[in-house]
Amino acid sequence: MANGGDEPFLPPEIIINILKMLPVKSLVRFQCVCKEWKNLFITPSFIAEHLHHSDHKNPFLLLHDYYCGSVRLLNQNMETIEILSIPFTHDLKIIGSCNGLLCVRATHYHGVSRSLCLWNPATRKIREIPQTTDDYCSICAFGFGFSSIVNDYKIVKFYNQEKRKKKEEDQDFTEAIRGYDGVEVYSLSTGLWKELEFGSLHPIRFRTTAVSADGTMVWLGKKDLNPVLVSFDLVTEVFTITPIDGVSPTYLGVWEDKLTLFWRGRDNSVDDGFNSTDVRLRLLVLVNLGRV
Q1: Fewer beta carbons within 10 angstroms: which end of the chain, N or C?
Q2: Largest CA distance in the chain
Q3: H/E element holding 94?
Q4: Which residues form the F-box domain (predicted)?
């Protein structure tokens, strides 16, 4: 269709519908088309719509080689489609990923040891998270997630205060810690850390990195030598401990935004064609957190 002149014309709503279906890299290039588009791409409503259309389409696997310091992007056929350049000069640990953002902990970044950063590989942008009083303590556990209800990304950090005190007093603190006893949360919307009540979590230890599903972070850990799931509601900022009956899972994962537990091991009790060297993988999808 056309307006009063001879120039082709598309209604704004059609243009927006087209733009929100494009990949992030295309939107980055199109920022220079006009100021209106540049401003559009950073509005919360457009970001939410773009995420809704792009989520779960053509999923990719991010593979981080700790020793080589490279990050590869793999497709569903496990083929490398891109090798990402790491904007960090030293080793990094990927804490979690959510909506295309990576939460990483770099050994050294811009002169700061053990920096915590949010990295968008598509746009190449990095946001450094402010330091807290306990950042120099290496004995920490983290979680990273997003809540669509409050429209906010949050980072949870567990640490050991006794370990910190021994470091401050320059004592020998090579003994095994008895678990974490302090926790704080960072909100991307406010840019601030705040201490949370540890309460009944003490003493807790974690076996896996946290996963985030449906507005909840979950860790696999042990409390008083018993396997448990520790979940954190990103809206209420309340922790829940779920006991696990039987053998503890080996891994945590997410499938269709639902928490998934994986058991990896050998089972020779049943002769069904598997030999003793076969490794089995069993999974359980949880709709709601409860007793496992």
Answers
A1: N
A2: 81
A3: strand 92-98
A4: 10-51
